[in-house]
Amino acid sequence: MKRAQPTPKGASNFDGSAVSVKRYPDTKLFDTKRLIGFASVLFVFILFGSNEHLWAQAQPTSQQPWRQISIPKLPTFHPAQPKRIELPNGMVVFLQEDHELPTIDGTARIRGGERSLPAKKLGLTDVYGEVWRTGGTKTQTGDQLDDFLEQRAAKVETSGGADSTTVTWSCLKEDFDDVFRVFVDLLKNPEFRADKIEIAQKGMYDGISRRNDEPSQIAAREAAKLVYGANNPYARTPEYVTVAAITRQDLVDWHAKYVHPNNIILGVVGDFDSAKMEARLREAFAAWPEGPAASAPEIKPEPAKPGYYEVEKTNVNQSNIHMVGLGITRRNPDYYATSVFNEAFGGGFSSRLFGDIRTTKGLAYGVGGGVGASWDHPGMLRIMMSTKSQTTIESIQALDQEIADLAKRPINDEEIKRAKDAILNSFVFRFDSPEKVLQEKMAYEFYGYPLDFLENFQKEIEKVTKEEVARVAAKYIHRDQMSVLVVGNVAEFDKPLSTLGPVNKLDITIPPPPPGLLPDQGEHP
Most Cβ neighbours (<10 Å): which of 29, 239, 345, 518? Predict the structure, then answer.
């Protein structure tokens, strides 16, 4: 089952791959001439590979045969459509046949998540999402379920999230009836055994104690607080005291409040006949009475005042820089234009930020970002960069210059073409299986989007113009309205952050656990 994670995932850096060297008998490990030759070839590869467009522009067309290749227009995207069924009790079911393998997988997504919790119970859905499965049912313990499922190479798992909880299963077609009975029993009759609650809480305590280990995680967490507000459900984090306050009765009450058929979207994909599967699901769920409908809480962001924010971490040699602000939702008509802008400006190896700051100036290990778009609340506008400590201020100034240049040097036709190609060519790989399409359709149902949103995406991206990209850049990218967060070794910066403006130092000290909660009552930085 999925282990609960008490802290949000941070953005990862660009990673370099290691080169392994084999030692052969009677062969020197390092041959100087070969090493120099290899280094020379590698240098040329990096030089021309990193600046391919510059090199290509310097060559006559006759020496650029790849430009003469005729690239056909992408076909219209027509994924296999799942069958949508709504039971009389309000449960929505999606059935997606896929006969490639003799397996059947299912996901039940239930409305209600961490964002609906009171502050004093933060971490409840993480504990709930783990113990729902490990605690077993009224007739079988979680350990007995483990043995039963392992004999069939099957899985039934549970998890908790910001706006929903889920129960999933995966099994061979021949074991469907056995595994589905476990799924239904767990959905309706969980036991939440006390010993498993204690184990889940200890796992949460361990996660809390380690949440300041990784600079990238610190940056992601504190950036969210700057954008939404420290006490906002999209930014707050569990503490020792809130996890310790969770009781078995809290889990029972949560289940009774939210797990009703009218709050569930069930998706099934695999090797089955839709008519027979529909009959089986109606048999299992049609008589289940509906309960109170879950509603999404109204959450208003309270962004921090724009400025510079600093988290000092002395045991690192690089800085994580986040320039942040409020983004948009996917309902926003500007979603498609901002998607193209994001790809062109900070979306990958061919983006402007990567080319200018990493390739040309050599300042960044990784750089990118754009206007984030979430399903039912504003995402984060975020431009991220990692650099060595000694180029921290220089890097921030380089980002400032890139943002300022958007007005003088808008995203051009060539950049837009590359961005659209990158989005559209990768689109098919994002939805290259019936299961991925099913999960996307379930998301549309969950958040109230039109079910043809996926099919319309391709043509809407194709329609985006250079003028629209320039308009959304001017509309959403305002440097003076952004907060700049730096996590790094302050003593090694090229200049103090205060040379750019007043600095707000953030305290990320972890509040200590209640007395007697943990065996080790030492410091918890």
Answer: 345
How far apart are the C-alpha atoms of 215 and 469, rounded to whole Å?
Answer: 33
Amino acid identity for residue 500 in this structure? L
- 267 neighbors 96 (Cβ within 8 angstroms): yes
Q: At 137, list the tokens.
A: 């049912």
- CA distances to 38, 346, 456 from 46, rounded to whole Å, are 12, 20, 38
Find how far residue 474's CA is from the centre of its chain: 26
**Does the pLDDT value for residue 392 go beyond 70?**
yes
Residue type at 417 in one-letter notation: K
pLDDT at 155 over 80: yes
Residue 328 CA from chain centroid, whole number: 16
The answer to which of 63-67, 120-124, 457-461, 487-491 has the lowest mean pLDDT is 63-67
Give percent helix, percent strand, percent coil of the chain, each to the nearest 5.
Answer: 45, 15, 40
Does 118 have pLDDT greater than 70? yes
Would the CA dihedral through 234, 237, 241, 244 be positive or negative?
A: positive
* Interatomic CA distance for residues 313 and 490, integer angstroms: 7
Average pLDDT of span 21-50: 38
**DSSP codes joined into one string, 433-489:** SHHHHHHHHHHHHHHT--TTHHHHHHHHHHH--HHHHHHHHHHH--GGG-EEEEEE-
Instruction: Give the CA angle between residues 409, 412, 418 to the nearest 5°.
Output: 135
pLDDT digits (tens, 9 = 90+) for 243-297: 999 999 999 999 999 999 999 999 999 999 999 999 999 999 999 999 999 998 9
Q: Give Cα separations from 187 to 96, 182, 457 (angstroms).
A: 21, 8, 35
> What are the phi and psi torsion angles at 90 (to 5°)?
100, -10
Q: How far apart are CA 243 and CA 13, in angstroms?
A: 31
The residue behind tokens 């205060």 is 498
Name the H helices within 135-175. 142-150
